[in-house]
Amino acid sequence: MSVTAAKGFTAAGVAAGIKANGNPDLALVVNAGPRRAAAGVFTSNRVKAAPVLWSEQVLKTGELRAVVLNSGGANACTGPQGFQDTHATAEKVAEVLEIGAGEVAVASTGLIGVPLPMDKLLPGVEKAAKELSEHGGEKAAIAIKTTDTLHKTSVVTTDGWTVGGMAKGAGMLAPGLATMLVVLTTDADVDAPTLDKALRDATRVTFDRVDSDGCMSTNDTVLLLASGASGATPAYADFAEAVTRVCGDLSRQLIGDAEGASKDIRVEVVNAASEEDAVEVGRSIARNNLLKCAIHGEDPNWGRVLSAIGTTNAAFEPDRLNVAINGVWVCRNGSVGEDRDLVDMRYREVKITADLAAGSESAVIWTNDLTADYVHENSAYSS
Amino acid sequence: MSVTAAKGFTAAGVAAGIKANGNPDLALVVNAGPRRAAAGVFTSNRVKAAPVLWSEQVLKTGELRAVVLNSGGANACTGPQGFQDTHATAEKVAEVLEIGAGEVAVASTGLIGVPLPMDKLLPGVEKAAKELSEHGGEKAAIAIKTTDTLHKTSVVTTDGWTVGGMAKGAGMLAPGLATMLVVLTTDADVDAPTLDKALRDATRVTFDRVDSDGCMSTNDTVLLLASGASGATPAYADFAEAVTRVCGDLSRQLIGDAEGASKDIRVEVVNAASEEDAVEVGRSIARNNLLKCAIHGEDPNWGRVLSAIGTTNAAFEPDRLNVAINGVWVCRNGSVGEDRDLVDMRYREVKITADLAAGSESAVIWTNDLTADYVHENSAYSS
Fold first, then answer.
1. Banded model confidence at residue A48, pLDDT cuts 50, 70, 90
2. What are the Cα distances from residue B326, in Å, to B299, B329, B346?
3. Would you say residue A179 has pLDDT above 50?
4. Which of A4, A78, A86, A179 is an active site residue?
5. What value of ipTM does the predicted structure carry?
6. Residue A310 is nearest to which of B46, B309, B380, comparing CB atoms?
7. What is the pLDDT of residue A106?
8. Does B376 sit within 8 Å of A372, measured CB to CB?
9. Can you tell me the mean pLDDT for B239-259?
10. A217-221, A373-377, B337-341: which range is least confident on average?
């Protein structure tokens, strides 16, 4: 279903030959309207890939008619030629679809610092355009995979309108926003400013709270396109909720498929003085390599949680901190709590609760354990 | 040599039975004077172990007659009982040496959140006191090891006076200051304020620039004791240089023995607008798990260096960044530079140079690669 679950959209995914192994590597998503509203959020990494710079620019109109995405190369740190390649890609899409290049967003993912093989990519665009279909969502989702073992899609349908989407991402997964590439579509009749607000509200509490490995990508892109084809005009709250549900579902799928991970870790920070404090503490816990190793070893090592909390600027008193792992309060008042042998860590999902005892705000950050498989996968990635 | 290289100091290292495996686990260092000046720097982690809180307090006088250190337990996150245990340890040292408890610093290292076995530790203090010797420095250095494979000592002798020291530390190694436990001694005749300044000047550019795994300990302690026994009164610059050399040497030994590491990585940031920028960028590179995996795989993946730089607030323009790995400028002006196949990464030491092209300041941060052995060692640490 993916990006074609909503009415008014077609998509395709093809093998253009960008990837040496012949796997699908080029996706096209087209909004047939009647509306062509769009919004996007992008990596806050200051080293931005050429397609990010391009897409930020074209989105200033609040309209998009198409998105072209490739895996097999990030087109990041590729200099002026990289930007020309992105421009040429958009021009090619514009040519085959008889639209303007300024109506085409571009997204790329793969290795940084390698120019794209344009002699393969441009013919791939022609091929994808020929295969555009209202049933092409799955193929598009498959074509944007890199080290992903699964393709990721999500759909929410309610009251005659739909929000659907696809995502890729398995490593370099610490959005600021965001992680990876995501295209969301809706057939609700929503204007660009509303799309923008709904998308920012949603990503702030979903993709922005995924932190698999602390490494922020140069290519993170999340786009939301509205066709208006359902004719429905949902209330903002309903629309935002649907977008947030799809983003949350895709975020969860990203964590579940993170490189080499054996555990999905839900870090919940409660009783913080502010939401910012809760996020800062959650992120510090999520990025603590020693803790991530301990969780991999099914060791409820709460001392590493406390040492991570201690490096933050959040409001708390060390002797009032409480920590639960999978519901067992192994740390009470900054010291030894319930018996750590009571903690059952056999399952993939592990829940860490950090109680700052400093207020009433909370936040959830999702992360993964740190494993030898992660090391192996990322030691050999570009060789 | 270690802490007994300087005249006026005795030391001992014994097996008190704190460690289940019977290895040495308790060290004692005593300053026989005539001077008893001392200074210390401690972890900036807000969750501080009981011995850190104690030692910070007793150091306010600027004098110490003894330091007692134990491995086999950090006495961190152990509540009021933990502080009482530290106090009782200092009282025991005071009793056997016939001095005041307020003249005794305490340092502990090992697992967080486990009470110390005082029934073993206190007799260990008596045993260590009986073995105090002017040749006890090596044994003391051995007794403070945890996962260290080697004990770490360093000595600089010049113009009739000496600075020597010992260190332990192999994991949770991201000082803010500092890493781990370090005791430095000197027989130079230096007062406490001067010791304090020399120690802070030294640690700022040595221990504070070691970042093996991004995880800051609750127990980091660096002490510097002066006996004045040489009668020498060196100029500040000479004394500070000697302290910095010893700290630099010990820092380098810590990196060389970091848990599971196969590479020591020297991250040098040059042409930064400020030293703070250089340190921020160096630390961001040093903490990038994906890059650390790539270095482990001997992959000169400069894209991961750029993506790490891009997450900082330092002054730079993305298209002016240059990166060299082992002297080969694989990234020029934010894009592809010299052939990455020219980079020889067979040796343990790897040098990454990041040129921000934004000024004339620089800094060096030392880190390690991320390996499956690190994961294995830290998945099983407390079980």
1. confident
2. 12, 9, 10
3. no
4. A179
5. 0.74
6. B46
7. 94
8. yes
9. 86
10. A217-221
Q: Name the residue among A163, A162, A364, A190 with its Cα closest to residue A281.
A: A364
Does the CA dihedral A295-A300-A301-A304 come out positive or negative? Answer: positive
Active site annotation includes A153: no
Q: Exposure pattern of A3-30 as b/e (b: 16+ CB <10 Å)?
A: bbbbbbbbbbbbbbbbbeeeebbbbbbb
Of A77, A301, A303, the CB nearest to B76: A303
| pLDDT tens by residue, A252-283 | 888 888 778 899 999 999 999 999 999 999 98
* B256-299: pLDDT as tens digits: 887 788 999 999 999 999 999 999 999 899 988 889 999 998 99
Annotated binding site of B for substrate: 146, 168, 179, 259, 378, 383
Interface test with B, best of A45, A283, A312, A379 (most B CBs within 10 A): A379
What is the structure's pLDDT at B381?
A: 54
Give me the count of residues in chain A: 383
A319: which chain B residues are within 8 Å (Cβ-Cβ)?
A: 79
**What are A55-111's pLDDT values in tens digits?**
999 999 999 999 999 999 989 888 899 999 999 999 999 999 999 999 999 999 888
Name the residue among A75, A55, A71, A67 with its Cα closest to residue A115: A75
Whose tokens are 């001095």? That residue is B99
Inter-chain residue contact A307 with B379, CB threshold 8 Å? no
Residue A156 tokens, joined: 């929410």
pLDDT of residue B181: 81
CB spacing of B79 vs A319 below 8 angstroms: yes
Whether omega for the bond prior to residue A34 falls within 30 degrees of 0, making it cis, is yes
Q: Which amino acid is at A363?
A: A
In chain B, the domains with their CATH numbers are 2-256 (3.60.70.12), 264-379 (3.10.20.340)
d(CA B285, CA B288): 5
Q: Which chain B residues are Cβ-neighbours of A285 within 8 angstroms?
A: none
In angstroms, the separation between the Cα of residue B274 and the nearest Cα of chain A is 18
Q: Which residue among B10, B43, B179, B371 is the active-site one? A: B179
Residue in B with minimal Cα distance to A219: B307
Binding residue ranges of A for substrate:
146, 168, 179, 259, 378, 383
- Residue A170, pLDDT score: 64
Q: Do A307 and B46 touch (CB under 8 A)?
A: no
Nearest to residue B140, comparing CAs of B30, B39, B65? B30
Task: Please list every residue in chain A whose beta carbon sits closer than 8 Å to the beta carbon of residue B375.
Answer: 293, 296, 370-372, 374-375
Structure tokens at B6: 């300087």
φ and ψ at A63, to 5 degrees? -135, 145
Token pair of B91 as six digits: 């009282």
Q: Collapsing DSSP states into helix, strand and coil, what is residue B169? A: coil
**Which one-letter DSSP state was computed for residue B114?**
-
C-alpha B243/C-alpha B206 separation (Å) is 10
Q: What is the mean predicted confidence (pLDDT) over B352-378?
A: 91
Of the candidates B296, B311, B336, which has its C-beta nearest A113's C-beta?
B336
CB A116 within 8 A of CB A136: no
pLDDT on residue A376: 85
pLDDT at B319: 86
Q: Which tokens is A319 given?
A: 């002797």
Using the predicted structure, report yes or no on whether residue A174 has a pLDDT greater than 70. no
Cβ contact, residue pair A374, B297, below 8 Å = no
d(Cα B106, Cα B75) in Å, to the nearest integer? 11
Q: In this predicted model, what pLDDT tens digit does every residue of B195-238 receive, in sequence order?
A: 999 999 998 888 888 777 777 777 778 789 898 899 999 999 99
Question: Is B299 within 8 Å of A371 when comparing Cβ atoms?
Answer: no
- The beta strand positions in B127-275, using DSSP E, are 152-158, 161-168, 181-186, 221-226, 264-272
Listed residue (A173, A132, A131) closest to A152, CA to CA = A173
